[in-house]
Design a protein that fits this description.
13 strands, 26% strand, 10 helices, five-stranded mixed beta barrel, Spore Coat Polysaccharide Biosynthesis Protein SpsA, Chain A, two-stranded antiparallel sheet, 281 residues, binds 1-O-phosphono-alpha-D-glucopyranose, alpha/beta
Length: 281
């Protein structure tokens, strides 16, 4: 049985790269085709067997709560018409899980956002999804692959992919030793021994970048409480994970699947084209 039931979605950021679109609309609500980014993330978590969605929001994010709720007026209006089918998918998402919210009052970084979510997570291992990293796979989703790994290794698991060296300053970058696991054929595994948040290319320990999927053990909260502000003066999850990596508790997973950086306009357009072509085929 899959033990990870909770998924945390840090969703308090301003989305400045998408202004003016994100002036009044949370970036997590920007749609790829007709579905908001956050809904893709929630569906990925449900596919991985999770049923408790914990969302760290901020000011101006109330439409997220409305999205994962019933809109009686709208449903009444379209009841019995062909348009009813447009709501089938979101209805089944709402029925499959619960949503709880807490607000990050000050933006002090991803590590701080995750620590803010402690009140919703408690003392269980949990997943973290950054909704602007949109993932897709024909076979099992990335989070499902990672929860299976967790069941075997019982430590923090982070998704990584190869990036062009010149992009290292956009990501957390890891280094470590390959784990030989012949029972595991989908992706490859690395026991992490170093990680740096957004290094310049000359300082990057490798070309393996962290993408927005993590499985974390609850002891991460104690480490985060002690983590000093790092890159950009923010509390970085990468710095907290480095502490766990020093005691061998972090595995990086080169996953099977596609990932789009929907935090950038280029990645967003790429994702839109990809999902459009997929839908039409
Ligand atoms: C965050 C993390 C970074 C990671 C990235 C993945 O950065 O801090 O380590 O590589 O997400 O998308 P952000 O993109 O929020 O600046």
């Amino acid at each position: 049985m899959n033990k990870i039931k909770k998924c945390l979605f840090p969703a308090a950021g301003y989305g400045t790269r998408f202004l003016p679109a994100t002036k009044a609309i949370p970036k997590e609500m920007l749609p790829v085709l007709t579905k908001p980014l956050l809904q893709y993330g929630v569906e990925e978590a449900i596919e991985a067997g999770m049923d408790t969605m914990a969302i760290v929001t901020g000011r101006g994010k109330r439409s997220i709560e409305d999205h994962f709720d019933i809109s009686y007026e709208l449903e009444h209006q379209i009841k019995g018409t062909a348009k009813e089918s447009y709501l089938t998918e979101i209805r089944s998402v709402i029925n499959a899980c619960t949503f709880s919210y807490t607000r990050q009052v000050e933006m002090k970084g991803l590590g701080h956002a995750i620590l803010t979510g402690e009140t919703l997570i408690g003392t269980e291992p949990f997943a973290v999804v950054l909704a602007d990293d949109l993932c897709d796979n024909e076979d099992d989703g990335v989070l499902k692959q990672m929860t299976e790994l967790y069941e075997k290794y019982k430590c923090c698991i982070i998704a990584v992919e190869e990036i062009p060296p010149e992009d290292s300053n956009k990501y957390g970058v890891i280094a470590g030793d390959t784990i030989k696991d012949s029972s595991y054929t989908k992706g490859s595994l690395i026991r992490v021994n170093d990680m740096v948040e957004k290094p310049e290319p000359k300082d990057a320990p490798s070309n393996l970048a962290i993408i927005g999927r993590y499985i974390l053990t609850p002891d991460i909260f104690d480490v985060l409480r002690e983590t000093k502000p790092g890159k950009g003066g923010e509390i970085q999850i990468t710095d907290a994970l480095l502490e766990m990596a020093k005691i061998g508790k972090v595995i990086a997973y080169k996953f099977d699947g596609k990932r789009f950086d929907c935090g950038s306009v280029d990645g967003f357009v790429e994702a839109t084209n990809y999902f459009y072509t997929k839908e039409k085929s």
